[in-house]
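Exercise 7. Predict the joint structure of the components listed below.
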Amino acid sequence: MALDEFALIGRYFRTAQLERATDASATALGIGDDAALLQLAAGQQLVVSTDSLLAGVHFPERYPPAELGYRALAVAVSDLAAMTATPLAFTLALSLPTVDEPWLQAFSLGLAAAARDFAINLIGGDTTRGPLNIGVTVLGQVPAGQALTRSGARGGDLLCVGGPLGDGAAGLAVVQGESLPAGLAIAGQDYLQQRFWRPQPQLLLGQQLRGVASAGLDISDGLLADAEHIAESSGVALHINAAQLPGSEALSAWAPRQKLDWMLRGGDDYVLLFTLPAREKARIAQWRAAGHAVSVIGSVHAGSGVLLDVGKGYAPIAGERGYQHFRSAND
Amino acid sequence: MALDEFALIGRYFRTAQLERATDASATALGIGDDAALLQLAAGQQLVVSTDSLLAGVHFPERYPPAELGYRALAVAVSDLAAMTATPLAFTLALSLPTVDEPWLQAFSLGLAAAARDFAINLIGGDTTRGPLNIGVTVLGQVPAGQALTRSGARGGDLLCVGGPLGDGAAGLAVVQGESLPAGLAIAGQDYLQQRFWRPQPQLLLGQQLRGVASAGLDISDGLLADAEHIAESSGVALHINAAQLPGSEALSAWAPRQKLDWMLRGGDDYVLLFTLPAREKARIAQWRAAGHAVSVIGSVHAGSGVLLDVGKGYAPIAGERGYQHFRSAND
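Solution:
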């Protein structure tokens, strides 16, 4: 793009809401030099994750730009929540086909809303002309040695989930204008759309899990696919009891079979899945009292893979684990 | 892409050369979890920079993939050199139109060569199907308070450059098969191509500038455009004496006017431009003795903007400052 177009774009991103969304004490030098400078607190490790969002792959072509801005950051921050990190800062690599000012205005406002909600500052970026591509790198910090990884689950642990399952997939059905069940009230539609448009990374719950949970991640590809990641990294078998899976009231408007499929295989929930040593069980009631909708959905055993009980005893899962929406036809 | 395609791609990037290019003592947790973990040394600040490279915008469509892999990382690392940082780690967000194994093989080998040359580990990434887009985020560390920014230049300082100017632009002419001057030997062509394909960020010189230079950056948009950034950030005038600009022997094959234009406005040189308090002048001979081709090209004065002397006294620059190659026709 020409230099004046870059200056124009800068106007949308060099805003106080984006650069100083949080107190910014960690940001020693922000946007405008060759690189940004961050000061980690003593005894902390840096947590780093990169995500790209492409139109038609990760979201529908006609996604509203404000929601897209929010979502791009929320999805990346969810990886910080999964490591139990505290957000520090993010960079944005944005490729845009044209300089569309109303689009930029809405996108940057959505991004700023997420930056404020997750207390994370924009510290750098790069804007180029090209097909729409949103690259976000998030940085966080965690006390040294306390990050939660996928590899610590042990036999006897409880398997827990941090919130309702399947809302992301049901929200997508609502957003895409699919025919909806008669029992789904307007309030339920609103709830599900909001769950899809503006995922809420479980940062506070994540921080509660430091030094307590044994393994964890965020559910982005679907419960079964992500449980498989923990089982494999930890070298254990995970047993999941379908009867214990938590679903929202709105999701109950669908037939039980559709509801169960979304809870097991739906993506985009961005709730935490973690294993908890049995001695820590009393924490669950404390977390629930503090507003975190934690549920026990199974247990950890010697062995390998993910076994599911749908009322007939635990058995290995048949068929595809994860939900692959928006993938191109030739995938 | 389908999951098996992702697994295939992973084979090219999850290599020892990329994940353990350096001793890796800073990498507490690398690729494979929700995020990577880094441990900074005590008393260090984190340096962060993000760059995107798009075919047709930042490099010719038919760029050889090994050179592209090298260049994508080199260009990003040059921003660390400009801050006088030591590289720690990088993430790669790669969007690819198809899974082309020979292309991936060559690209990853070029990337690995750069990772080894600059002692920087791949710690995370994201691969998606889409138009070719290479997003690199580099992380480095610098002793707290010693990073070199653009804003510290003061009247009386010397203006210095860390290596020859114009090679990037001349190298592009060679690479693009433009008609070359008769006096350009094969060895000179090779030299210039190499300068274009594989820029060498001045990391070691940068580290020598810590606590010594007053302002600095890397020349990516051309000397005049980047000098303007220092002048503006520091609130000073920079005087540049054209007779003092260092150019390679290969560049001298072109007519003096073309040579001067490339030295002033050519991009892609990735050498450091910095200001040095006059009391530090003796360092220049030390740096040159150590193999860093540092030259004094001007001086810092009260005032604003960049003034150029081409033999008729210092005058403000007329015309475009920077060299905007590969930009699309409607830019």
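Discussion. The domain at 158-316 of chain A is CATH 3.90.650.10 (Phosphoribosyl-aminoimidazole Synthetase; Chain A, domain 2).
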